[in-house]
């Protein structure tokens, strides 16, 4: 392992420990009912994380739609790429309409 990699690891390790502690505190707050959880009467699948572009969320969403479309009525909610917080979109469950053309309807 090169010297630069060791320096990177030495710098990132404390940050990852802090992040892990933050996540643990947040999880405990949910367990202690200090943070509110939302329950739904229908199955909900969330595709997303803290990563931004290039992590494969769009193709994975397409896969999930195709895998579940014969079993469930599918709806996709997407804020959209580089959209401000609070901006909402509604998409149709027809993958051919959603991904190739990026056709979306504003709600």
- N- to C-terminal distance: 51 Å
**Low-confidence segments, ≥5 residues, pLDDT <50?**
97-107
Cα shape: extended
Main-sheet strand order equals: 1-2-3
β-strand number? 3
Helix proportion: 40-55%
Average pLDDT, rounded to a whole number, is: 77
Radius of gyration: 19 Å
Number of helices: 3
SSE topology string: HHEEHE
The biggest sheet, with number of strands, parallel, antiparallel or mixed sense and barrel status, is: 3 strands, antiparallel
Q: Beta fraction of the residues?
A: 5-15%
**Structural class category:** mainly alpha
Fold and architecture overview:
The chain is mostly helical and 107 residues long. Helices cover 42% and strands 7% of the residues. It is built from three helices and three strands, in the order H-H-E-E-H-E. A three-stranded antiparallel beta sheet has the order 1-2-3, with no helix packed on it. Residues 97-107 have low confidence and may be disordered.
Layout of helices and strands:
Elements: H1 3-31, H2 57-68, E1 76-78, E2 89-91, H3 95-98, E3 105-106
Antiparallel strand pairs: 1-2, 2-3
Quick structural gist:
The chain is built from three helices and three strands. With 107 residues, it is mostly helical.
Keywords, please?
mainly alpha; three-stranded antiparallel beta sheet; disordered C terminus
């Amino acid at each position: 392992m090169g010297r630069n990699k060791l320096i990177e690891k030495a710098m990132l390790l404390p940050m990852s420990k802090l992040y892990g502690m933050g996540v643990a505190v947040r999880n405990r707050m949910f367990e202690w009912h200090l943070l509110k959880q939302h329950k739904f009467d229908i199955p909900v699948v969330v595709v997303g994380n803290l990563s931004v572009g290039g992590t494969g969320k769009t193709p994975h969403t397409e896969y999930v739609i195709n895998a579940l479309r014969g079993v469930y009525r599918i709806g996709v909610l997407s804020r959209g790429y580089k959209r401000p917080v609070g901006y909402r979109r509604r998409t149709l469950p027809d993958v051919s309409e959603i991904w190739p053309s990026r056709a979306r309807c504003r709600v």
